[in-house]
């Protein structure tokens, strides 16, 4: 790994212990007494995987027919993995029915509306069960598109599909009509569930109008069920559209859950690649449910019968929302909070208000959100109320920068909240590497140790040989299957094999780089195509970005490599500022910041000052697009349907092409992003700090 890896190990080597004072007050205590207890069970999961997974499956899942002696079949190389193949079960029964019988009047879902003054809804397990026993005329094997706001009916729609054996395909409610159309056509969907409108951050999103536009090019869709979520108007198409509540009153009761084989599809979820159409990743029933339940229980130390309340800010249009807003906690019988709005509307205290109001014990968010809240300032943090309730705050989506981790730990949690940085993917369904709350000592910026059953391997990207030297970076792969992993790309198994299993035969290829410390802790370094080789130095873009973000003037950054005749590659940093200043001065500050934080060898050759960076709807900056723009490949950008701010692309192209090279580039205030963007550009001189944060939040979709 060289100088960059040594620097990372030196800068982030401090181990912070578990906040035992806080966890010692919980009843019952954490599930694992200490990290050694974790290591013993982890060892069993690796050395006796069939025994381990059989025990967990019988503990966490209610089976209609037990799976017998066969726990796992298939291999990575064969692309034919199957778990518990002889078992029968139903996901809806496991998430609702069994809890409704045991605690009918307990709260399953707490709904927090966009406006704080709006009406909260508290859905009991009994009420949730009653809704799900209606027959809404969808049958086993049908694919159903769900395009809804974050309201209880969105979860009900998912669970209703699972109850009858239909395959749900949730599409985030911020996608365009074209993106929705493509997903409907690819999945051969005949039924779509939607709402008239969504409200996020005080803004109305006309969902049904978008659906109407998409369905004008989807002739196979026969039925559209529309929830009147607001008082706004809705255009209904005769013969196709039906009102949700009117139809619900007609549905007969009682509809028993359909028996599903373990390997029957539960859902598909689309994720975009660097080229071609989005991939519809298909997850099956038993293995996915087991992974979601076990990982939620262990990583967040869930004790549902002790009154835990789990708040995951992710929309169910993404895998985090599937696994940790819905399936994971509901499998455990844990109350979930569903939030319609954004974390900074109407003020940046909104998350903290929700935590206090609903006595949240676990919060799961993303680095983008936590950066926003940190940027808003400590004054919005109501730490007295927070201190009373949550034990755990989790982060997912990208490595949580050490300074942000420290802020959450020290300012939000006063040192008494366990901050867990987790790593998983849409493809894996549940955690690959993550600390266990109340158990695992933490290193800020590190996702720590592998989850049960997960055996990571670092490979040399050129030779494919396993790397065993601590601190040496390699390609992160997984050596053995785990139950929650996706089985295929919908109707394109060859693509599935070529992307995930063929690059390194016998391994699952995550696409990420990482290194492992002497203590076995894993540090994710970003996508492997985001590693830059400069004059024989392999530099992590994640580390350079973290160094830049340590400076108070830097709002967001993205680092990419570009070809260089002298050094092979050169570092280019795209930077958006949180204040108005001279661009030449900003370039100097950025270069000096990296030089002082890592070393002169890591200082960017080019610094491009822009107003906004292209992001997908999970909040991730699309660095591959920046790289292609710098290389003059604007006509080869591939799939951009997941961008939340597509007008950032022409604005950046204008900046890059408008000067003699990127070293002294600055954002032009009259670029298309400033003129045509629905939201005002984030420019400090034109907007208050809170307005800036709200504009960012409305354009993201992780919450």
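^ Assign residues to that structure.
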């Amino acid at each position: 790994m060289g100088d960059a890896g040594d620097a990372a190990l030196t800068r982030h080597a401090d181990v912070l212990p578990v906040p035992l004072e806080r966890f010692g007050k919980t009843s019952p205590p954490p599930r694992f007494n200490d990290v050694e207890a974790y290591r013993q069970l982890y060892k069993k999961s690796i050395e006796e995987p069939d025994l381990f997974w059989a025990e967990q499956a019988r503990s966490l899942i209610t089976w209609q027919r037990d799976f017998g002696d066969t726990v796992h079949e298939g291999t990575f190389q064969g692309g034919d993995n199957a778990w518990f193949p002889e078992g029968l079960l139903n996901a809806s029964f496991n998430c609702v029915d069994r809890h409704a019988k045991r605690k009918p009047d307990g709260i399953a879902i707490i709904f927090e509306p966009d406006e704080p003054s709006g009406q909260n809804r508290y859905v009991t397990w009994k009420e949730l069960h009653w809704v799900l026993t209606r027959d809404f005329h969808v049958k086993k094997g049908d694919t159903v598109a769900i395009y809804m706001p974050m309201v209880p009916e969105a979860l009900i729609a998912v669970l209703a599909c699972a109850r009858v054996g239909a395959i749900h395909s949730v599409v985030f409610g911020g996608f365009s009509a074209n993106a929705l159309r493509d997903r409907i056509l690819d999945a051969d969907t005949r039924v779509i569930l939607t709402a008239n409108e969504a409200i996020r951050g005080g803004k109305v999103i006309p969902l049904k109008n978008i659906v109407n536009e998409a369905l004008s090019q989807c002739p196979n869709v026969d039925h559209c069920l529309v929830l009147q979520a607001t008082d706004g108007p809705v255009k209904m198409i005769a013969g196709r559209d039906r009102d949700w509540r009117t139809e619900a009153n007609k549905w007969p009761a009682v509809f028993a859950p359909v028996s599903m084989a373990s390997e029957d599809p539960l859902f598909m979820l689309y994720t975009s690649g660097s080229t071609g159409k989005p991939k519809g990743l298909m997850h099956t029933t038993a293995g996915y449910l087991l992974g979601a339940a076990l990982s939620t229980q262990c990583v967040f130390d869930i004790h549902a019968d002790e009154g835990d309340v789990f708040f995951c800010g992710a929309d169910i249009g993404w895998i985090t929302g599937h696994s940790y807003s819905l399936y994971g906690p509901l499998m455990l019988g844990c109350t979930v909070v569903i939030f319609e709005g954004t974390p900074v509307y109407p003020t940046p205290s909104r998350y903290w208000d929700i935590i206090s109001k609903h006595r949240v014990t676990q919060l799961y968010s993303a680095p983008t959100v936590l950066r926003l809240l940190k940027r808003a300032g400590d004054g919005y943090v109501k730490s007295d109320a927070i201190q009373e309730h949550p034990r755990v705050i989790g982060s997912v989506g990208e490595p949580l920068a050490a300074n942000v981790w420290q802020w959450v730990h020290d300012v939000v949690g006063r040192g008494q909240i366990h901050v867990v940085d987790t790593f998983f993917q849409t493809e894996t369904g549940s955690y690959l590497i993550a600390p266990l709350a109340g158990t695992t000592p933490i290193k800020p910026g590190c996702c720590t140790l592998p989850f049960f059953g997960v055996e990571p391997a670092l490979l040399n990207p050129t030779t494919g040989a396993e790397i065993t030297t601590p601190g040496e970076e390699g390609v992160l792969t997984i050596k053995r299957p785990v139950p929650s992993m996706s089985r295929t790309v919908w109707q394109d198994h060859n693509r599935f094999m070529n992307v995930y299993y063929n690059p390194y035969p016998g391994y699952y290829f995550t696409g990420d780089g990482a290194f492992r410390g002497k203590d076995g802790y894993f540090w994710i370094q970003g996508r492997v195509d985001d590693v830059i080789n400069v004059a024989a130095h392999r530099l992590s873009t994640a580390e350079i970005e973290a160094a830049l973000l340590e400076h108070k003037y830097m709002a967001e950054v993205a680092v990419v490599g570009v070809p260089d005749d002298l050094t092979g590659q050169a570092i280019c940093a795209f930077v958006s500022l949180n204040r108005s200043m001279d661009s030449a001065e900003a370039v100097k500050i950025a270069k000096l910041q990296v030089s002082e934080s890592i070393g002169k060898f890591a200082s960017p050759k080019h610094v491009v000052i822009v107003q906004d960076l292209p992001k997908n709807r999970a909040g991730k900056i699309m660095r591959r697009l920046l790289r292609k723009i710098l290389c003059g490949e604007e006509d080869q950008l591939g799939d951009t349907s997941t961008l939340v701010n597509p007008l950032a692309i022409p604005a950046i192209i204008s900046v890059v092409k408008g000067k003699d090279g990127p070293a002294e580039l600055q954002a032009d205030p009259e670029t298309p992003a400033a003129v045509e963007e629905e939201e005002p550009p984030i420019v400090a001189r034109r907007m208050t700090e809170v307005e800036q944060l709200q504009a960012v939040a409305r354009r993201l979709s992780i919450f």
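The mean pLDDT is 86.
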